[in-house]
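Quick entry, no commentary yet.
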Amino acid sequence: MRIQSYKHDGKIHRVWSETTILKGTDHVVIGGNNRTLVTESDGRKWVTREPAIVYFHKDFWFNVICMFRDDGVYYYCNLSSPYACDDEAIKYIDYDLDIKVYPDGKYHLLDEDEYKVHRSKMNYPESIDEILKHQVDELQQWIEHKKGPFAPDFIKVWHHRFNNEH
């Protein structure tokens, strides 16, 4: 399955060519990929360097990429619309803000300047701004309380399942 990220103005932002769906319900999609071709909006292409588990939820305005590196698990969290899925791909709108979580549990909010520029340029409505502020807080709570994809058991189970399918 492909993953397609868009910007608020409807333009394609980034495409991951292939992700193996490990679990799909009405509310959650969990997938895995490794050495996957990624195409940027400007046509630039690159390949992911490490195995990753991706987590999407219908009720939250973020998705989480768990990357397995030699020194531990890193998380890259995109503040985004809830995902939509069709025959073509898993799709979401990327709202610029990201949180990077390190193996020691420390985390940083990234790209606030980019968010401000795009919010003005693409006229994000006030309602989206409010949702995203709330979702940053929600995501930080998940990180601090090791909830959802940040739970140690989540990583063990889904990394093991992905490895067994490859």
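second:
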Amino acid sequence: MVGIIMGSDSDLPIMQEAIDILESFDIQIEVDIVSAHRTPEKLFDYAKNAHARGIKAIIAGAGGAAHLPGMVASMSPLPVIGVPVKSRNSIDGWDSVLSILQMPGGVPVATVALDGAKNAGILAAQIIGASDKCVLDKIVAYKEGLKLKVNKASERVKK
């Protein structure tokens, strides 16, 4: 149900957090490497046809110039969540953040924090949960778990 793509296999350690969180919610994923600059034909095919394969949201991670999320969003009717990745050719990650964040009107890309693939996975699950009660219940339980964790930490520091 969620497509997770990245521009290079060097992005996988970051994107693994999206994979892991979605798997913990029992959401089906499809993972691939789709480079905006090195495999543009594959990018076009992926973006134009993901919805026909049953994908409900796309998480696209990219570093450097980070064109992948925006290009996918320009061609796909699906919600796209961009994950800016701090790569070795990055300018402290700011180039990636701004490339994904500063999209023109009409081509939105939801953008998470630098290397924030876990939040991208949670956001994708929330998008799916808006129309799937089973997923929504898992999100509710996950958020309740976060609350309990904070409350336990609060009790520990009060002692």
